TrEMBL record:
ANK repeat feature ranges: 143-175, 252-284, 285-317, 319-347
Record protein name field: Ank2 protein
InterPro entries: Ankyrin_rpt (IPR002110), Ankyrin_rpt-contain_sf (IPR036770), Dendritic_Spine_Reg/Scaffold (IPR050889)
Superkingdom, natural source: Eukaryota
Natural source organism: Symbiodinium necroappetens
Signal peptide: none
Keywords: ANK repeat, Repeat
Length: 388
């Protein structure tokens, strides 16, 4: 047996000889003992016959070892500066030596940062492992930033995995944003965009809340809304699979479908509609997604929205214009044709008492004038009906 004795003279634990092959050396033995003695390996010293064993010493035979737990050293300001500088340059050996002091990793925190936050920012996975092994807090915020929030924003997949395994709060907001939102916004970064996308996927697998509203650019938004607004289209199916709400109303009454329709993101519109995005939502300007697609002549989106039963005659509460008005005025002939095929009311007047035909004539869009005049059975008379 390998017997471990405490300084008090009491036996702490024993290991059968057959288990020693899996222990290898003193460092591995200390890691196993940390679960028994409640202290990290950095505070442990193992003695054999009064001599301290180095971490690299091999333990392969039955013997008696004595365990001593050291108190933490006092961490000076210079200690804090040096260890944070070492983390920034990725010097894991120096960090190991400081923790062997032993120094409490939490006592190395400054008013501006903590070792875990610095390791997360500089994507130092090996150092992050050392700090967590030394029992650094996985969720301690400094300057309103947790290690997980920082790691997510920097696309550090390994550190995010490490922190989630250590119990970090996956939904804790920092600077008005959740870690998932930080990862989604980070996808637009040239430096770490692809990595941030992987982090977003990992957070969703961990069931991070995907409908938590965050503040970005002075507006409230969900991760899905931001992904659509910033045209990070690869994230949309990822978020929808994570059960993001496609109908969550965000800035100025917009839903993701409004934004996708306005930007001409046809594939994204299809994905949102497949996830049961509502076509009836009206944003602050009084427009539905169909209004927006028609005003910009995005024919594929117009057709898809009409197929999804969007109201072809809904008048804007702002100016009374219908989708047909908004397609006719700028000269989007294909959109006009699609609306007429869907039997949109070509005679409906807006608040200014103009019909779509009036707007098309005023703008000199001869093709649209012809479409409107000859739609239906024969040449129709203009019947003004004020929009309700």
């Amino acid at each position: 047996m390998l017997n471990i004795w405490q300084a008090s003279g009491n036996k702490l634990t024993s290991f059968p000889v057959e288990e020693l092959a899996n222990v290898f050396d003193v460092k591995h033995l200390k890691r196993r003992l940390s679960k028994v003695c409640g202290a990290s390996r950095f505070r442990q010293r193992l003695l054999r016959d009064g001599t301290i064993l180095q971490d690299s010493a091999i333990v392969i035979e039955p013997q008696d070892l004595h365990l001593v737990l050291l108190p933490f050293c006092r961490s000076s300001d210079s200690d804090k500066e040096r260890v944070n500088a070492a983390i920034r340059r990725g010097d894991a050996d120096y960090v190991e030596s400081v923790l062997q002091g032993p120094h409490d990793p939490e006592a190395l925190t400054t008013p501006l940062s903590s070792p875990m936050v610095v390791a997360s920012y500089y994507r130092c996975l090996e150092i992050a492992k050392l700090l967590l092994e030394a029992r650094a807090h996985a969720d301690r915020a400094v300057q309103d930033e947790t290690p997980l929030f920082v790691a997510a924003s920097k696309g550090s997949l390994g550190i995010v995995q490490l922190l989630l395994a250590a119990g970090a709060d996956k939904d804790r907001s920092c600077r008005g944003m959740t870690p998932l939102f930080a990862a989604v916004t980070g996808t637009s970064s040239i430096e770490c965009g692809i990595d941030c996308q992987s982090v977003a996927g990992l957070l969703l697998e961990a069931r991070a809340g995907c409908d938590t509203v965050s503040c970005f650019g002075g507006h409230l938004a969900t991760p899905l809304y931001y992904a659509v607004a910033s045209e990070q289209t690869a994230l949309v199916p990822l978020l929808l699979r994570g059960r993001a709400d496609p109908n969550h109303v965000c800035a100025r009454g917009n839903t993701p479908l409004h934004v996708a329709s306005e930007k001409g993101l046809a594939i994204t519109v299809n994905q949102l509609l497949a996830a049961r995005a509502g076509v009836e939502f009206v944003r602050a300007t009084g427009h539905t997604a169909l209004h927006l697609a028609c005003s910009r002549g995005y024919d594929e989106i117009v057709q898809k929205l009409l197929e999804s039963c969007a109201d072809r005659d809904q008048a804007s509460s702002h100016d009374g214009m219908t989708p047909l008005h908004l397609a006719s005025a700028p000269g989007h002939a294909s959109a006009v044709s699609l609306l007429l095929q869907a039997r949109a009311d070509k005679n409906k007047a807006c608040i200014s008492d103009d019909t779509p035909l009036d707007l098309a004539r005023a703008a000199g869009h001869a093709e649209i004038v012809q479409l409107l005049e000859w739609s239906g059975s024969g040449k129709s008379s203009r019947k003004r009906i004020r929009a309700s």
